[in-house]
Each structure stands twice: as C-alpha cells, then as structure tokens.
Structure to design on (420 residues):
C-alpha cells in the first residue's frame, strides 16, 4: 500500500522525480537496503514513460557492442561507458523479465514489451517499488534545496520538508513539459553550485519553409536517405524512416539528425535533400523510366509515378516540377524524363526551424558531465548528491537509447547512493 510521509521522516535515500530513471534508482537503492523515498510532483508516476514509443514503450535496443551503443548518444556517449557496461540492454531485459515484463527485439533492434503496452511497464515498476518498500510521495514538488557544509541538508517541498543521507535527482529535461519535466528543477540544481549546459530540444521534428509538405501529411517513407547541406556543402548523409507532416518533416531519420540541424542553424540556412530511391542510381532510374514509358505509353503520369512513391505523394510532387498529372507517359520529352528521375533522387527542402520543447522527445544539455563521476553518478561538487536520466547532459537517438540511459544511470546511482 502506498504511504504518504510527513516532514519529520528521515531517509537514507531520497529520489526526486518519479520517471523511469527515478523509479529505477529508487528500486536499486531500496534493494541495497536503504530506507528510500521517491518524490514525484505529479499525481502519478511515469507520465512520460506512458507516452513512450507511441504508448508501446521502446524500452531498450538490442545493440550489444558497447562502443556502438555509446556512439548512439553522440559525442557525450563515452560518459555512459561504465553505466552501460554494468547495466546495459541485456541486464535491462533480464530486470524486466524478473519483474514480469517479457520483451522482444524487433528487426530494427528496438526492444518493446511483448504486450506492446507502456502501461504494463509502468505498472510492473510501481509493483516493484512497492515490493522493495519504497515510500512513494506523489503530488510533492521539490521547490528548494538547502545545503550546509558542502552537503544537501534537506529539500523543501510544496507540502513539507524531507531530509535524507543521500539525494538522487532524476527530474528529467525540458521536453514535453506537460508530463512534468518542465526544466524548473535545473534552477534548484544550479543552487548547489552545479552548472547546466544550455538546454535545447532534441529528437525534434523540423518545420520547413516549403508549405507543400502539408498536402503530404501522414505520408511515410520506410527507408529514405537524407542529405543535410549548408552553404552548398554536404554535411551529413543518413538513412531511415521519414514522415511528412503539416509543418514539414519528422520520422526517425529527421529526429536523429535534429541535434545537428539545430547546431547548423546557428550559422545559417540548412537544406535537406530527400532521396526516395536510395538503392538506385540516377542512371538506373532513368532506364527504369524509359522502360516504363515504352511498355505503358498511355499511362497517366500520376499513375506512372505511383510505382515509385506513395500515390498521394506522386500527385503533389508532379506539381512541384510543373507537369500535368494527366499527361501520358509516352508524351514525356527527354528533358521531362530527366526531371522526373532527378525528383526521385533529390527533393530539396529548406529548414525554417526546429519545433520547440513541446514536441521534442528529448533534451540536449543538462547537468555538466565533468561535474559528475561516471563510475557512480555522484556529484563532484556535493558529496551526497547523485544524478540519473535525462537531467544529465546526455541525449540519445531514437530506438530505445534514452530509456536505456535511464535504466543504466538509475541503476548505478541507486546502488552507489547506498555504497558511497
Ligand atoms: C512522446 C515521447 C516518446 C518517447 N518515446 C521513447 C521511446 O520509445 N524510447 C526511449 O528510449 N525514449 C523515449 N522517449 C524519451 C524518454 O521518455 C525520456 O528520455 C525519459 O522519460 C526520461 O526519463 P527521466 O526519468 O530522466 O525523466 P522524466 O521521464 O521526464 O521524469 C522526470 C520526473 O520528474 C518529475 N519532476 C520534475 N521536477 C520535479 C520536482 N521539482 N519535484 C518533484 N518531481 C519533479 C516530473 O514530473 C517527472 O515525472 C520519449 C519521449 C517522449 C516525449
């Protein structure tokens, strides 16, 4: 049964933030014998976890190579080397199995619960918290931190005060603030002397200057190649799922490059070229078109192009190259066939901006890594303070990497808070 605690309680470990990282940290601290309290400002735990993977919860990734795994977190990934080697995807899968969640890895290596429900993952974590006798305090917001002689003495909540020997902050980043992680907790962290690296939306869709994407809203390309260009120079090529939206572009291939796009935008205009036929060269496409025109000369262009791209897209794309969708394939000039072939290899869009934190799946920036010990997740500034999850300056690609960060750092922080 859940218990509400009062101010005069003293704990060994107080975990602030009841998201995935906080729940894991609290379970591990309690498992190691600590009297543990988990403090969450919302009326329920794990609001963001419930949204993850479109409600299916892509909780980890089946990448086993540690170096490849850390590379999925960009240049800060090496910070996670220890946490992932102690409690990586394999350990996370075993942990979830032990608490009653069977998982499966899909072809893409994304790991999901077999039930396909984030709610099952959350319920299993809550059950485990209760089994480990973690005190869960909901509707309680940490509003202040009181430090004395280089240690946190207590935290002031909206409903009282809590003191503990050790504190683990797992208050998340700034993305999807409606879930509770609105970034306000960073102000508290700064009070302890920590620095916070600039917070930026990460894994975020792109708004384009061209408005024709609106007509393609919902059209998904399973395997597109994008080339990011700036000042006419190729900066990065990447492949994966792409989604057209009413404002521009989304889908894994865009989300995963949004950090780079955000960086580039600071110095000037950014273009994205989409190659919808990455496995074919321009020449091969031209030959396929020539063959098609020969065998089906009376076919209308809109139907002819639907062999190469979703029908809805064919109609819109013909408009962008000023051709009549009802034109017969056989009447296409050499020049027009070239134009079509080019379209299948390169559709250019200009980035207007990245969408903001409201639509970002993660936050880039956070508590500076050089102020945290990567072997323990302990603060290098305050001896009884630990961090886990998205609060730290780590953000991963889509594919289960962000939740894996929570399990790995949560595990490490929870155990270390008891042993150090
Ligand atoms: C729509 C969406 C889908 C996603 N899908 C996936 C996915 O499929 N796979 C994946 O790996 N990642 C996914 N992510 C990212 C992943 O959900 C996050 O990285 C993860 O939830 C971060 O966990 P956390 O515990 O660090 O922080 P959060 O989940 O943000 O939890 C922090 C908690 O702290 C609480 N809190 C904040 N301030 C205070 C305070 N002062 N006092 C008390 N409590 C406080 C908040 O209310 C919140 O509950 C998704 C994100 C979004 C937005």
């Amino acid at each position: 049964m859940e218990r509400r605690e009062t101010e005069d309680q003293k704990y060994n470990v107080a975990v602030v933030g009841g998201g995935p990282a906080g729940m894991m940290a609290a379970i591990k601290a309690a498992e190691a014998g600590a009297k543990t309290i988990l403090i969450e400002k919302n009326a329920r735990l794990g609001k963001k976890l419930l949204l993850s993977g479109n409600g299916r919860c892509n909780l980890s990734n089946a990448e086993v190579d540690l170096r490849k795994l850390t590379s999925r977190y960009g240049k800060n990934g090496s910070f996670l080397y220890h946490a992932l080697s102690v409690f990586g995807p394999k350990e996370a899968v075993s942990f979830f199995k032990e608490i009653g969640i069977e998982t499966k890895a899909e072809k893409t290596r994304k790991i999901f619960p077999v039930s396909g429900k984030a709610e099952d993952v959350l319920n299993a974590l809550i059950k485990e918290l209760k089994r480990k006798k973690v005190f869960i305090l909901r509707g309680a917001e940490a509003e202040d931190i009181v430090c004395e002689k280089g240690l946190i003495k207590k935290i002031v909540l909206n409903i009282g005060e809590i003191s503990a020997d050790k504190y683990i902050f797992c208050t998340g980043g700034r993305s999807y603030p409606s879930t509770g992680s609105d970034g306000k907790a960073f102000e508290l962290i700064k009070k302890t002397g920590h620095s916070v690296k600039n917070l930026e939306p990460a894994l975020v869709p792109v708004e384009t200057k061209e408005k024709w994407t609106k007509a393609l809203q919902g059209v998904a390309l399973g395997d597109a190649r994008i080339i990011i260009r700036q000042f006419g120079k190729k900066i990065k090529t990447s492949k994966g799922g792409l989604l057209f939206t009413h404002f521009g572009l989304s889908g894994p291939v865009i989300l995963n490059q949004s950090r780079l796009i955000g960086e580039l935008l600071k110095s000037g205009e950014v273009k994205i070229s989409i190659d919808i036929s990455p496995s074919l060269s321009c020449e091969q496409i031209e030959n396929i078109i020539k063959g098609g025109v020969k065998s089906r000369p009376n076919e209308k262009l809109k139907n002819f192009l639907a062999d190469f791209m979703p029908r809805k897209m064919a109609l819109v794309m013909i408009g962008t190259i000023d051709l009549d969708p009802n034109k017969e394939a056989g009447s296409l000039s050499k020049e027009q066939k070239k134009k079509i072939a080019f379209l299948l290899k390169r559709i250019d869009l200009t980035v207007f901006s990245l969408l903001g934190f409201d639509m970002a799946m993660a936050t880039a920036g956070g508590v500076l890594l050089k102020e945290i010990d990567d072997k323990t997740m302990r603060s290098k500034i305050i001896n009884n303070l630990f961090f886990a999850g998205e609060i730290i300056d780590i953000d991963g690609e889509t594919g289960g990497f962000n939740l894996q960060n929570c399990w790995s750092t949560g595990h490490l922080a929870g155990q270390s808070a008891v042993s150090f």
Notes: The chain has two domains: 10-202+363-419, 205-355. The CA atoms of residues 376 and 420 lie 8 Å apart.
